[in-house]
Every structure is written in structure tokens, then in C-alpha cells.
Write a structure and sequence with these properties.
This protein has a two-stranded antiparallel sheet. Helices cover 50% and strands 14% of the residues. Helix 2 (19-39) packs across helix 5 (91-100). It contains five helices and two strands. The protein has 108 residues and is an alpha+beta fold.
């Protein structure tokens, strides 16, 4: 009979360094990016939006990012007014909620 000894350090190392896992996480981040872009507000000049689509187009995936226990990616915007848009429309919060739900939404 064989014995299995679980190694938290070994699993953590795998989750931080495995290229196949990193590629899968990147693909999921890109799907989340597409979702965020699809729900980002895009106004018109008539509505007072001087740069229609700029916030949507500023959304991007950053990474890989090394967390203490795993590798990951971050989704964000480099628009100077991104915090205002997030406060008003909760684009990233809604994206996280959708992709964090283990029972629905994204299927990821």
C-alpha cells in the first residue's frame, strides 16, 4: 500500500510556477476582460462623454502577478478617472462577482 503526504509548500510552488496553470489563468482573465469591456459604459459626446469608449478600451489584464500562494492576473484600467467610473457603474466589481460565483454566470 502506498502513502501520500500532502505538501502545502509543493502545491504552492506548483500553483505559482506551472506554465500550463498560468496559461489557463491567463485565458480566464482574458475572458473576464471581454466581459468587463462588454458592460463598460460608453457614452456619446451629446451625453457629455468627451472620449466615448476610452474607459472600455483602457481595461487590460496585468500579469502574471505573484501572490503568496498562487500566480494570477489582475484586471484594471489606467484611465485617470477609472475610480469614478467604477464608483458609478461597478464594472470591475460586477466582473469579479460574475467570475467568482462557483454556481453560475461565467461557467469558469
Amino acid at each position: 500500500m502506498s502513502r501520500f503526504d500532502y505538501s502545502y509548500a509543493g502545491v504552492g510552488e506548483f500553483m505559482r510556477t506551472d506554465p500550463d496553470l498560468a496559461a489557463g489563468v491567463r485565458r480566464r482573465a482574458e475572458v473576464a476582460l471581454a466581459f468587463a469591456q462588454s458592460i463598460a459604459p460608453v457614452g456619446t459626446p451629446e451625453e457629455g462623454d468627451h472620449h466615448p469608449g476610452h474607459y472600455r478600451d483602457s481595461l487590460q489584464v496585468h500579469g502574471p502577478v505573484a501572490f503568496s500562494d498562487r500566480a494570477g492576473h489582475q484586471l484594471g484600467s489606467d484611465a485617470g478617472y477609472a475610480a469614478d467610473v467604477e464608483h458609478a457603474h461597478q464594472v470591475l466589481a460586477r466582473t469579479v462577482a460574475t467570475f467568482s460565483d462557483p454556481h453560475g454566470g461565467s461557467g469558469l
